[in-house]
Write a structure and sequence with these properties.
mainly alpha; 132 residues; 5 helices
Length: 132
């Protein structure tokens, strides 16, 4: 049951964090990106749009957190998107060089948390079914 509680807490935290970060990008545009400075109106527009998408991603995590049990397939799908984002950051690093240190920290967090979500994905389903 401990794994199930950890899963529920992480899924909720992920949902609220992504929602807040997404809304921050919508409201602040380029100012929300550490080290970006003024990247111009095109990048500002893209960043605000992707902020809205990221807020929607957070809402998807919160949707999963409101289910009982939390659907393992939803957690796996959302974690796969998270991992794909981390892989995109690694591709950027290889193609363009090292970004602001905060982006590097986010990459590490994404690479560490993704497997944790995959590992915990079915914890609540198993706990409610009485499986260890």
């Amino acid at each position: 049951m401990a794994k199930a509680r950890i899963l529920r807490g992480l899924v909720r935290a992920m949902g609220y964090a992504c929602l807040a970060i997404g809304l921050m990008h919508v409201l602040l545009g380029n100012l929300a990106i550490p080290g970006a400075g003024s990247a111009g109106p095109t990048i500002d527009s893209l960043g605000r749009f992707l902020g809205a998408v990221f807020a929607g991603y957070g809402l998807a995590w919160l949707w999963a957190a409101r289910r009982s049990p939390i659907p393992a397939s939803a957690v796996r799908g959302l974690a796969a998107v998270f991992l794909l984002g981390a892989l995109g950051r690694l591709l950027s690093l290889a193609a363009s060089g090292w970004p602001h240190w905060f982006q590097v920290a986010l990459t590490v967090l994404e690479l560490v948390l993704s497997p944790v979500f995959f590992w915990l994905a079915d914890a609540e389903e198993k706990a409610l079914a009485g499986v260890k």
